[in-house]
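so my prof wants the structure for this chain in the tokens format not the other one, which i didnt know existed until like an hour ago. anyway here's the sequence
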Amino acid sequence: MKHPRRWLAAAVAAPVLLAAAQLVVSRAVVRGIRRAMPALGEMLGVRVEMGAARFVLFRPALKAAGFTIGNPPGFSEPALLEIRRGHLGVSLAHLPFGVLRIPRAELQDVALHVVRNPDGAVNLLRVAEAADAYDLAHPEEADEAERGGLILRRVRAEGVVKCVDRAVPDGDPFVLDLAVALRAANISTVAGGRAEPGDFRLQGHAADDPDAFVFDFRGTAAPLTNTACPTFELHGTIENIDMRRLDRLTARAGVHGESASVRADLKCVDGRFDPARSVVEVKLEKARLAGRLADRAGMSRPLPTLTVAMPVGGTIEDPRFDWMTALSETLVRDFGSGLNELFEGSGLKPPGQADRRSFDRAVNEALRGMSGLFAPRKKE
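here's what i got, hopefully its the right format
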């Protein structure tokens, strides 16, 4: 073999050069991302930070040990989103066209805080509104962004979603922690022919009490060109709800039972729910009235089964559904299945013996005083 020393030197130098290239490129990419954090934070109106990170050159991917998006002003929780471990594959071929295409994203130990503050504002929606306001104030950047976009081909995420409602009537916040697993494909901000419709599946259970309930939702999503006005369909169920473990929630709802299930079918177009195609159905086994209505009616015997269907309208920010009206109509409709005791205890006569409108009015009057988590919040 000719020039064996040259071949040996090349064999030794190649890994060293590749390692050096990896180190230089990784530092440059991570440094560039860190420099972009303040601009991203300005656009969203929140604090954005990234922890230790490394970019892999030869199989392009970004690995990060921490990523945080803070909460907007008016919210006491320090963070809206925390991702403790993440792995994002990157398609370099699409970057010259302004499209960040991520073939695979794996996010672990995710913590998402969805909070409604005492004024009724929701942190996720405030961030989306801030991003849209930034685009209006910087049209040149918005035009450039429209020519590019983000495409997530495959997403796997696991973590906890903490739901906090600080606008409940009694002043004590309602808190619910959910252990969630998300699987999604073709989630995109690119409109037109370059992106396929996206689909997703969301599964989980109560984080602190896995036996309390389980949920499973599937859906499809159009390209997210306007973060505050998404278009999507969602279908799924919440099963095995042990109502005895959710006393505070059932007290607000005005009715409780031993077990329950929920089915939701929602269609949202440009941020607005279609009430003709959006309904949430709650099925209660061995249901009993709770709160003021139970006290007023003096009803103790449970109903065999109570199924309450609520049409959903309004917007993502202000969904409109009236649990109390739906419950009232269901009680009136099902008066023959266990409601005689309600009539006797409340001093009312069944609709067959009295004017039906008077009965409806009396039941609604008894329900009107009950406010809670499911009652739509009136804007001041």
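also thought this was worth mentioning. The mean pLDDT is 75.
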